[in-house]
Amino acid sequence: MLQPSDKALVPFVSVDDMMKLVHHIGIEPMLKGIADYIEADFRRWELFDKTPRIASHSQEGVIELMPTSDGEVYGFKYVNGHPKNTKEGLQTVTAFGLLADVNTGYPVLLTEMTVLTALRTAATSAMVAKYLAPKGSTTMAMIGNGAQSEFQSLAMKAICGIDSVRLYDIDSAATDKAARNLAGMGLNVVKCSTAEESMEGAQIITTCTADKQCATILTDNMIGSGVHINAIGGDCPGKTELAPAILHRSDIFVEYPEQTRIEGEIQQMEDDHPVTEMWEVISGKQAGRTNPEQITLFDSVGFAIEDFSALRYVRDNIKGTELFIDLDLLADPDDPRDLFGMVQRASSEA
Ligand SMILES: NC(=O)c1ccc[n+]([C@@H]2O[C@H](COP(=O)([O-])OP(=O)(O)OC[C@H]3O[C@@H](n4cnc5c(N)ncnc54)[C@H](O)[C@@H]3O)[C@@H](O)[C@H]2O)c1
């Protein structure tokens, strides 16, 4: 067999290697590390190429491409969202992604991103809550106890210092699973049988449900003053979690308005409904929480720059480890213009 040259090889991080990386670094330090990379990239927001993600909708779900570039490095993620999948033994969300060198266009990293998306979504939520949640928040209601939920809980612990999480899901098996997984991880975990019960004493309310419709996970009367809502699950046209009345009472913070107005909770509002961009809060250009009575809402949909940051984090942290393999991904003929000759010569090797 012909051996590929170095130029043909691209580091590839499999799911197995990603899980090993999580254990090698530790889940909470990794969540913090990714949050730091995301925060750093939000500070240089204006540098990036930005576009709403390219979505291909179908009856049962969506497949999306999420590209961005800072001028030196280009990244994209492939991700799906299929709420019915779990009933068939498949996940709602799976993903993989790539970084490339803008100068040559050559890929420099290919990686699984299903685990990495859960880490980056949680890291983003907690990084944002650091700016918006009431000071000294200790308790989070975690509504929707599926794949993302433990990551969300641990990121809020590691980055915002919460010590209690109150779990609720319409499927109590999901709540049991999340409680089991979080046992012994330094959080006081309470299983609740209604959404209202999960919100008792909570300063942070995370909604992370999956349903391919405009659901009403939170109604207006459930929300008192002085809370931070971290709304994760409303992230597609026709797929929301909050009653519009809550949006009228909240100060709404978003990633990239052009995408959030299509996909987020604010798709239920007028096109010019006021929102604040998180990068401006982080850069000190706009205020975050200004008083303890305020209801802050992070209308999260997930933006390409967060994936770019997570990919950068992985590229930097696999250096010097064996947590990747070199994939023979790029054709590398001896004469760059003799691609055909390279293919022809391979016949004698077949
Ligand atoms: N904003 C982002 O950046 C981002 C990133 C990843 C995923 N998501 C979204 O987050 C959501 C959760 O993703 P996941 O991978 O954890 O999905 P999942 O299917 O693993 O879990 C969803 C959970 O929600 C529960 N649920 C559904 N309806 C409910 C209701 N009315 N009340 C309480 N619980 C309910 C389900 O029983 C399930 O346990 C999805 O909608 C996904 O698209 C958003």
From TrEMBL:
InterPro entries per record: NAD(P)-bd_dom_sf (IPR036291), ODC_Mu_crystall (IPR003462), ODC_N (IPR023401)
What the entry lists under Pfam families is as follows: OCD_Mu_crystall (PF02423)
Q: Which domain of life is it from?
A: Bacteria
Q: MF terms per GO, please?
A: lyase activity
**Protein EC:** 4.3.1.28
Give the record's keywords alphabetically: Lyase
Q: What is this protein called?
A: L-lysine cyclodeaminase
Native organism: Roseovarius albus
